[in-house]
What we know:
6 helices; disordered C terminus
Amino acid sequence: RPIRYRLGRAVLDLVWGHIRRSQNQRAAEAVERLSREFPAGTVTFCRAIGGEVMTVFRMSPERPGLMETPTDRRMSPYVSASSLVFQAYWTAEERNAFRLRYPFVEHGAHFWKEMAALDAFLAEVRRTGAAVLRAASRGICPVAVPVFDADNVLQGTLGMSISASPDDEELVAPM
């Protein structure tokens, strides 16, 4: 009767933890690289955590060279380029759960006017692979792209907000 052990859930948690750390290290390196290339921009890496789009890494011109790791920084549901990328690539079920948590009428209608405009923009994000909101009136241009793993599963977004000229188009998104 030798003592026997069976591998349980803890082993899977260790493997996923290792994969997540490796992905986070590469994401942090990408944020750092973009921040060096565009020192006037704010660069972020976001993940969907518990149904929320959360900033994991952030570098900004206000704190050059400092990698921020915010613990509770949610992205705006209908105005953040990163949130829009997630909505574009989520399943209908994930997107509907998000929209139940953040009703369009309360959180998005002021920007998009109609749900049809938002849905058309999300289709364009899927087609082009990027969310670009030209909001010259606010002085910034938020941009985000999806980050997929080797199995083509959305892992996060890489985003940046850069200065926009008042001469730029008002908005690409809402028509």
